[in-house]
From TrEMBL:
Alphabetical UniProt keywords: Acyltransferase, Transferase
Presence of the UniProt keyword Acyltransferase in the record: yes
Name of the protein this chain belongs to: GNAT family N-acetyltransferase
Top-level taxon: Bacteria
Domain N-acetyltransferase: 3-169
One Pfam family linked to the record: Acetyltransf_1
Keyword Transferase: yes
InterPro entries with a match to the protein in the record: Acyl_CoA_acyltransferase, Bact_Acetyltransf, GNAT_dom
Organism from which the protein derives: Pseudomonas frederiksbergensis
Length: 172
């Protein structure tokens, strides 16, 4: 069954929430569940939060589906305030999540290309993102797609700070 790519709508919030929670916990709860991880998953990834972001014209979601089943998504935000002032001129790739069973099928690459195309269409000169320093697979993926590491930031929740690397790609 072929993959189908489309833009997300508010009605997609529940499935995006479920997939995002699954991928978040699969990626970050590698040593088991902790209260900060559970709280982050149940708040930031709640369906109402995604419904709100899907209703915001500055936020776009690219979805990858197979036979009506969500396999992955990319969330981009125009005019996002970056952790480095220079990044605010671009578009932020907030999340690129693909279910583990769907890895290495070109879904992440296709979603990233869609995010880049949407960024170009909006007139923004580059796409930027942050990736957890311990997510070696993601960092290698972005570098293989032409993203350059440009700095360090921290993502904080539950009283803990997690080091992230900042990446950007100039779009022609």
């Amino acid at each position: 069954m072929p993959l189908h790519y489309r833009l997300g709508q508010p009605v997609d919030a529940l499935c995006i929430s479920g997939l995002a929670t699954q991928v978040f916990l699969d990626t970050y709860a590698t040593d088991g569940m902790r209260a900060d991880l559970a709280q982050e998953a149940l708040t930031v990834y709640a369906p109402a939060r995604f419904e709100s972001r899907l209703s915001n014209p500055a936020t776009l979601f690219g979805l990858a589906e197979r036979d009506g089943h969500l396999q992955g998504f990319a969330e981009i935000v125009a005019n996002a305030e970056g952790p480095m002032p220079s990044l605010s001129a671009g578009t932020e790739l907030v999340r690129l999540y693909v279910q583990r069973h769907a890895h290495r099928q070109g879904i992440g690459q296709a979603l990233l290309q869609q995010a880049e195309a949407l960024t170009r269409k909006s007139g923004k000169p580059f796409l930027w993102l942050s990736a957890w320093v311990e997510n070696h697979r993601a960092r290698a993926f972005y570098q293989a797609q032409g993203y350059e590491e440009v700095g360090i930031t921290h993502y904080e929740f539950g009283g803990n700070a997690y080091e992230n690397r900042l990446f950007q790609k100039l779009l022609g």
